Amino acid sequence: MTKHIFITGGVVSSLGKGLTSAAIGMILERRGKRVSLQKLDPYINVDPGTMSPFQHGEVYVTDDGAETDLDLGHYERFTHAVLTKNSNFTTGKIYQSVIARERRGDYLGRTVQVIPHITDAIVEAIRAGVPSEDVDVAITEIGGTVGDIESLPFLEAIRQFAHGRNRDEVMFVHITLLPYLSASGEMKTKPTQQSVGKLREIGIQPDVLICRTEKPMTEEMADKISLFCNVRREEVIEERDVEFSIYEVPRDLVRAGLDRIVCNHLSLGFEGETDLSDWEAMLEDVRTTESKIEIAVVGKYIDLHDAYKSIYEALAHAAIANRTEVVIRKIQAEDVLEEGTSILEGVHGLLVPGGFGERGLEGKIAAIRWARENGVPFFGICLGLQCAVIEVARDLAGLDGAHTLEHSPHTPHPVIHLMEDQKTVSDKGGTMRLGAYDCRVEPDTLAHRLYGVDAISERHRHRFELNNAYREQLAAAGLRASGVHPELGLVEIVELTDHPFFIGVQFHPEFKSSPLRPHPIFRGFAAAALSFRSGRNEDVLVPQRTNA
Length: 548
Ligand code: GLN
Description:
Blueprint: E1 3-9, H1 17-30, E2 35-41, H2 53-56, E3 60-61, E4 67-68, H3 71-78, E5 88-90, H4 91-104, H5 114-128, E6 137-142, H6 152-162, E7 170-177, E8 180-181, E9 186-187, H7 190-202, E10 208-213, H8 219-229, E11 236-240, H9 249-255, H10 258-265, H11 277-288, E12 291-299, H12 309-321, E13 324-332, H13 333-339, E14 349-352, H14 361-373, E15 378-381, H15 383-395, E16 403-404, E17 414-418, E18 433-441, H16 446-451, E19 455-462, E20 464-466, H17 471-476, E21 479-484, E22 491-496, E23 502-505, H18 520-533
Parallel strand pairs: 1-6, 1-7, 2-5, 2-6, 7-10, 10-11, 12-13, 12-14, 14-15, 15-23, 16-17
Antiparallel strand pairs: 3-4, 8-9, 17-20, 18-19, 18-21, 21-22, 22-23
Helix pairs in contact: 1-3, 1-9, 4-5, 5-6, 12-18, 13-14, 14-15
Bound molecules: glutamine.
């Protein structure tokens, strides 16, 4: 029978609830349990797909093509849980299903209300989040902060879910903040007490309190929190800010005894230590690495770290695999035009991420030209591939005015055009080419050397693609298609033959990278950056630690 852990957050947002949920999943997997993870988000958008990255950060795409919250990226980086459309529900998605039922007449004339109809739909969503009966523990993170009006139906639903179940079938974990007031030099427990008070008003008594702190929590504070929040002393644990990597979180939680607390509460048995030895070895590598590479990321949403979260993480994984540290130079694409390519000087690699909209496009193209002309390793993702194709078309294939139809409907050379099946699409939400697609990797290419296999599957999120009418001209100019969709013939990977490392992919490889299983293209890109730094430029596949 599947047991459930519900994770809520109090006091403020951005406490790292997603990371902590992912870490709990990882700890349980390390104890031989099968887990599933799910996020319930209280906002009204049906999914984050239509939101600006500035509002919401990156949109994380699952294999089955769901556009989801970026916390799902943490879940996949830390665990082996299979995430699907049922791994992320929003208020909008819940209401959409209830309203559709109402229109069908399924409620047989009854008044449709938040309680019970919305809360029932939330309970159904929680059940749907468990992909199979052999999941031992289903972890559900509730977005937002306890006390928000929007979260109420979700909290009521999880309360009802626990009602009538045994104590060891459901566990409530509450993550809270112990703020440090520098003026008085004290940490404060009052916000935690108030947040737990709010939860208890709703009828939820937390079983564990995870207290996020900057400084160590004293025994005295833990005693006080325990007494006033009615949580056993040993179940008040500290989660201090990490020193150098978010990947320290699972280790720190195990050190704080969370593995034992969770296993005991859910009667999962607890014998022997939780083995994190390979993870700890990886952290030790990160801590002790002495070399550094600097990668320029030229994009439009540079001001917000979360907008390119998976890309930054995948670069970090690639660096770990190459026993180096990656420093990111975040560059506004427009600045490359305004200030010139001198702002790129000194970097060992250029990455152009995905994106939408025209702003910054020419800056990205200028940056790519600089990398191409100077032999600097280049990696383009989605829009990054499209910009590389435009650059090569204009400068090497002599196709003056080459452009993408996304921004230049009258270009004489639409080297990037709308995909056939997108031509009839008018709605914006959930209508792109989304999710995992197969790709054939051509022999004797950089892509093949990196992947080491003939067939791969990667996740997509786009409407436009390379126009096959220009494929031969581009190949003659040196830009070859090294990855192609086996049936549709869509070009998924391009690379420049006459360059040490110049690759563009139409998919989003960053979604499939994790610290112990870095993505092969990112790993090769970091290796190429290392080679470039040491002035060698050949030898792209330097020996690496393989944990795959
Ligand atoms: N705007 C481009 C398209 O829709 C690229 C999308 C992306 O980078 N995710 O094809």
